[in-house]
Amino acid sequence: MAQVYKFGGASVKNAEGVRNVEKIVRMVEGDLMVVVSAMGKTTNALERVVEALAAGQEEKALQQWVDIIDFHVAIMKELGLQPGVDIRLQGEIPYDPAKSFDENYDQIVSLGEIMSTQIVAVYLLKQGLPVEWWNMPKLLRTDETWREARVDNETSASLIRSGWNRRQRPRIVVAQGFIGGTADGRRTTLGREGSDYTAALLGNYLDAESVTIWKDVPGILNADPRIEPNTVLIPSLRYQDAVELSYSGAQVIHPKTIRPLENKQIPLFVKPFGDPTAEGSRIAEDGVGPIDVPVYIWRKNQILITMRAKDFAFALEESLSDIFEIINRHRLKVSLIQSSAVTISVCVDNTRFVPEAIAELQKHFNVTYNENLSLLTIRGTTPEILEKAKDGKTIMLSQTTRRTARLVVVEQA
Ligand code: ASP
Ligand code: MG
Fold it and tell me: How confident is residue 319, by pLDDT bands cut at 50, 70 and 90?
């Protein structure tokens, strides 16, 4: 049975990171699927290239592009790889002004993962490891929902299984996270931070023994160590608790990661790439639950939208399905809902889809909204913990059930 290892951008942000990948990969004797994200902050940098091109700022785009290429070339050289000989990097920016912004985005932004996997695969190969490089746009089949492509599981599973069975000597495959492709061969992306999801899908298709996400944290912690000074590691948890944590906004795993693993009862490990023999966290059906320490989860960049019926003869309950139909169609991600007799409020991620959704809601309701908010979810709260958490914060809305508190907090400027 195979294992799946996923390395995020932070674990391959420089040559030392790539050497560390080698060290970790060498610890495995059997078949291994290695999923890699773009190096460091490459995805953000590529986004800026697309934005500059769309704004007609060609020179700026080119400069950004050159910086990205230089960054990869420097890493290659440090690893003893020869640019142009060992790896041929994309020469021109694949931009087509006749195509939509989102389609161009996918053709360009996907190159981050193409480059990182080429470097990792060729480096491992040169170190004598039996490696095969996979081009996921040909294997992970998606629809044409640019930037948020939906995976065709049936086709993808069959393409990936046959690729896996057709391997000659290599027991290690290096593949891109986050990207796939349409039936006619155009690259797509699965939504930011989507590499964990790719790893989970591959684990599912290959009936893997386990999936491991290598991160720059010791495992799943009860709070973000960048915000809370005292965090504790949660060594074992159940799928259901992990799903709840990630949907509340815990950054450690992508929300879509759990389902494909749960379906096949494949355990997920989250481990520190800086300390590969550490236990980390294990997520599985038989994990320990409920989590027995208070957990703090921040979800940033929220907008609170409140709708009030224009006509009071019109009961709010009857509008609920209309509201959610609009919200769904505009791909808004709802993080909290609250209703009163005459209003309904939703807290959603403040994405590029929000303005159009608001415009449509305004046709039917009186709409007000507040931006620059964060949602703090505290699981396993007590009245004392809640009091302490509220201290010094401006709170727009709060919801508490027996064990969970959710606060919509104004972000400090
Ligand atoms: N490189 C992509 C991103 O930064 C995917 C990922 O890291 O999971 O969003
Ligand atoms: Mg990334």
Answer: confident
Name the DSSP letter for residue 110: T
Per-residue confidence (pLDDT) for residue 270, from 0 to 100: 97
Which residue from 192, 197, 351 has its CB within 8 A of the most atoms of ligand 1, so it is best to mutate? 192
Nearest by Cα to 353 from 325, 376, 330? 330
Enter the pTM of the model: 0.89
What are the structural domains, with CATH classification, of the chain? 3-215 (3.40.1160.10), 295-410 (3.30.2130.10)
- Ligand 1 atom nearest to 195, measured from its CA: 8
Residue range 28-44: average pLDDT?
Answer: 97
Q: According to the model, what pLDDT value does residue 312 have?
A: 65
Give the C-alpha separation, 105 to 103, whole Å.
Answer: 5
Mean pLDDT of 20-26: 98
Q: What residue's CA is closest to ligand 1, atom 8?
A: 193
Please state the length of the chain: 413
- 3-class SS of residue 188: strand
Please give the mean pLDDT across all residues of the chain.
94
Would you call 270 exposed, middle or buried from its count of C-beta atoms within 10 A (0-12, 13-18, 19+)? buried
